[in-house]
């Protein structure tokens, strides 16, 4: 099973990264991503239907870690699709109200499932037999949205979908907060956006260089006194330069494996020194 899951995740990651790099809107991206993940889950379901778990521990591991992680990606993109499809095109206050209502839904979901949240967050294990094996009757009241992958008794437990939704909601929360932060920037700098100033600036260098800059700025603590996350900076630079950076965490891994991880910063230093030298001549 390990080799199959590893290959499936590798292929899925490559496909999603390819979609992220496309020059299309968030609705189209979410739609394509959801379709891609749907195919992966269908393949995974087929594999499990012909697989016999070695023991109960392996079964628990699959339904507690492997399936929820992949399924959470599908839930995430389905929710992003719905959010962006229903997002009002009105003024900033209207959009802010809409996004805050979406955050309130996440808060309500948390309180509705706070006991299981606590179990997951505290890395509980004493109820794993009940939550993540297929020998317990499914509680259909837990499920919302599509039940395509959750009604098959051979591919579902009572809580694997709930866990997947929790993982997805964590990402949705980050997305919504980033969008609210961008609205605040627009509200505080209306002249920049209304005059179309940002449209004049395009990032024409390699995306990996912009990733390097973002991580450097975040690590420096010089923006918002260090209270600025990687995703917030990513969203900000994407808006400024009209660019899609895709999975910035994968980009960071690429930076770490380069022979010179500060290649872009070194180039900036050389450019500044060259400019100083020219002005002194």
Give an overview of the whole structure:
The protein is built from twelve helices and no strands. It has helices spanning 2-20, 26-49, 56-86, 92-112, 114-121, 128-131, 160-188, 190-194, 207-220, 230-241, 248-257, 263-280. It starts with a helix and ends with a helix. Helices cover 69% and strands 0% of the residues. With 281 residues, the protein is mostly helical. The chain is globular and about 80 Å long. The protein has two domains: 2-188, no CATH class; 199-270, no CATH class.
Topology:
Layout: H1 2-20, H2 26-49, H3 56-86, H4 92-112, H5 114-121, H6 128-131, H7 160-188, H8 190-194, H9 207-220, H10 230-241, H11 248-257, H12 263-280
Helix pairs in contact: 1-2, 2-3, 3-7, 4-7, 7-10, 9-10, 9-11
Task: Provide keyphrases for this structure.
globular, 281 residues, 2 domains, 0% strand, mainly alpha
Report the span from N to C terminus: 67 Å
What does the overall shape look like?
A: globular
Q: How many distinct beta strands? A: 0
Low-pLDDT ranges: 140-146
Helix content: 55-70%
Largest sheet: none
Integer tally of domains: 2
Mean pLDDT: 85
Q: How do the SSEs run, as a string of H and E? A: HHHHHHHHHHHH
Number of separate helices? 12
Q: What structural class do the secondary elements suggest? A: mainly alpha
Radius of gyration: 22 Å
Question: Which percent range describes the beta-strand content?
Answer: under 5%
């Amino acid at each position: 099973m390990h080799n199959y899951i590893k290959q499936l995740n590798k292929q899925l990651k490559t496909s999603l990264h390819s979609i992220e790099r496309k020059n299309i809107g968030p609705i189209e991206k979410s739609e394509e991503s959801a379709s891609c993940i749907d195919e992966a889950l269908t393949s995974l379901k087929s594999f499990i239907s012909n697989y016999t778990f070695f023991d109960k521990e392996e079964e628990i591991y699959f339904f507690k870690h492997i399936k929820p992680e992949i399924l959470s990606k599908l839930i995430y993109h389905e929710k992003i699709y719905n959010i962006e499809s229903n997002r009002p095109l009105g003024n900033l206050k209207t959009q802010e109200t809409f996004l805050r209502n979406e955050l309130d839904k996440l808060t309500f979901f948390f309180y509705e499932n706070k006991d299981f949240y606590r179990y997951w967050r505290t890395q509980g294990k004493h109820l794993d037999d009940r939550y993540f094996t297929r020998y317990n009757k499914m509680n259909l009241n837990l499920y919302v949205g599509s039940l395509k992958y959750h009604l098959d008794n051979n591919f579902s437990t009572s809580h694997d979908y709930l866990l997947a939704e929790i993982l997805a909601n964590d990402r949705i929360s980050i997305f919504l907060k980033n969008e609210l932060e961008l609205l605040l920037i627009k509200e505080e700098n209306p002249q920049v956006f209304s005059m179309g100033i940002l449209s004049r600036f395009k990032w024409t260098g390699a995306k990996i260089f912009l990733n390097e800059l973002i991580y450097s700025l975040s690590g420096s603590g010089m923006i918002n006194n260090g209270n600025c996350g990687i995703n917030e900076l990513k969203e900000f630079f994407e808006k400024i330069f009209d660019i899609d950076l895709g999975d910035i965490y994968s980009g960071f891994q690429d930076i770490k494996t380069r022979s010179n991880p500060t290649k872009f910063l070194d180039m900036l230093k050389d450019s500044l020194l060259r400019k100083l030298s020219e002005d002194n001549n």
